[in-house]
């Protein structure tokens, strides 16, 4: 279907007006600005945006990737009146975060209005790995590294084996990369504390195949249909 026809069917504007909007650079297809006529779109597989808002059939499912700053609550609302992820991603659709990222941790958070997708991404059996970069106090020993990899007791339960490597190691501090598929409260922080190296700063840089990349702190974008499809396939393949 031609892009201008699709925009008209979605109620954005008449077909002639839609052509003007395209030429003005206000329309994106799969994250790329379209400024020429003749673009064809597949309504089932292409993400079409007008002024950075997705357009499509009523009740379309929304999938957002946010680079959450520290000091922001990963929740739809906060009883203490603190800033939430929905204060940053201010869309008319009712969105919910997929899982949690604690108040002082920054990085990748997914938001959606698709409850089935959220369930798939957070169910333990699917083992969706989340990658973190953690600055910790002190020089992490090889023994400490092995403990994180093999599983360590936190609040009476042993953590699942993690993928861990040292990025930088100094006497006063270390930078480690940790990948876990569990979702316990403040898990990475508690794991590091358990080996005697408290976290000084923590950032989640990937969830499954999604990587933060060049997305700046406080910025967000819509996931491409192919990204959503691949994430669902990761879950269904288990």
Automatic annotation (TrEMBL):
What family is this? Belongs to the pseudouridine synthase RsuA family.
| Top-level class of the enzyme under EC nomenclature | isomerase
Q: Which UniProt keywords are listed? A: Isomerase, RNA-binding
> What protein is this chain from?
Pseudouridine synthase
Keyword check for Cytoplasm, yes or no. Answer: no
Q: List the SUPFAM superfamilies.
A: Alpha-L RNA-binding motif, Pseudouridine synthase
Keyword DNA repair (UniProt): no
Instruction: Pinpoint the RNA-binding S4 domain residues.
Output: 1-61
According to its UniProt record, the EC number is 5.4.99.-
Q: Name one GO biological process term.
A: enzyme-directed rRNA pseudouridine synthesis
Q: Which organism is it from?
A: Alkalibacter saccharofermentans DSM 14828
GO cellular component term of the entry, any: cytosol
A Gene Ontology molecular function term for this protein is: RNA binding
- Highest taxon, organism lineage: Bacteria
